[in-house]
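Quick board copy: two proteins, each given as sequence then tokens.
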Amino acid sequence: MDERAFDRPATYEIRVKGKLDARWSHWLADLTIVPQTGSESLLTGPVADQAALYGLMSRLRDLGLELISVNRIA
């Protein structure tokens, strides 16, 4: 496996506890936001690299959202 794979763009699915609507998309790296059953939201889209992913995680934390899962999509 390429040791620098994390430096390349990848698509992620990020599930959080809490309801977000589409107006948050721009603040969250233009990810697509889809409300889920219950009190969860699914954010999906490309992330430039691991540094951008960490920045995105910080923004989710700043909103007080509980992180459920982060999945890199092949």
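And the next:
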Amino acid sequence: MARRILITGGSGLVGSAFQAIQANYPDSEFISWSSRDCNLTDLAETKSKVAEAKPDAILHLAAISRGIGFSSKYPATLLRDNVLMNMSVLEAARVLEIPKTVMTLTIGMYPADCPIPITEDYIHLGPPHGSNYSYAFAKRLVEPSIRAYRAEYGMNVIGLAPNGIYGPNANYAYEDSLMISALIRRFHENKDSGERLTVWGDGSPLREYTYSEDMARAYMWCLDNYNEEQVLHVGTIEEHSEKSVAYMVAEIMEIDQNRIDFDTTKPAGPLRRSTDNSRFIGLSKFQYTPFRTGLEKSIEWFLERYPDPDKIRL
């Protein structure tokens, strides 16, 4: 009988990637939940529906995580709902004795001025960057939660920290899409207009971007092979500036790069968040999709579906 793996946030960027890699895991049945399937901020509902699903493992990916604009407007919502979802999943896994639970953290939880490259030991060195502090603190709380639930209840619960994620099935909505998906949609819609294409910030911040299917495979490796309380960085360390990403998107979409302007009056976030993933790589010998290759696949996926709202999140 196939093991049943419950994936919260199953309609999101990483959650949907599990369907793309399903053929590689014939011994597993992925049960994908979106917010329509269960209100994870409600503990009673979460316990009830996890009991009905009868999973052998939970991969908790669900979160409210959007751009800087949303973070500055709704900080209490981000803090409250993410903490409630995390605790509901942990409590359901505890009460129902789920054999293994995987929790998700974020690179954005680290102190704004922590040493580079960032290791998993720096989580609590100081406050996170102010541009997304409430989400960062909600995710940072996952780490002591893992230690506490393992210590008191003997649960097999682990924590993984992805970095920037991109790929098919990203959110392309104007109000809350992240950088790469926002660029792809705006550049496509204005490709033939001749108008200037404005990008927030000066383009200097450096970011690591991991292809969504790689992230799904990394989660599966950890589900099968990792059982320690130490949080792991599971994203790539390939790094690109926001300016180079904008130019690469334009090149792939055959848009004149000279049309791109950078608005230095807009916030850009911390200059660098380079991570150290040596613990994970040392254990797994994991191989990532090169950024350019993944970006080409992502743009191709978008162009095949735009502007059909039934096939793409707009």
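Board note added afterward: The first helix runs from residue 13 to 20.
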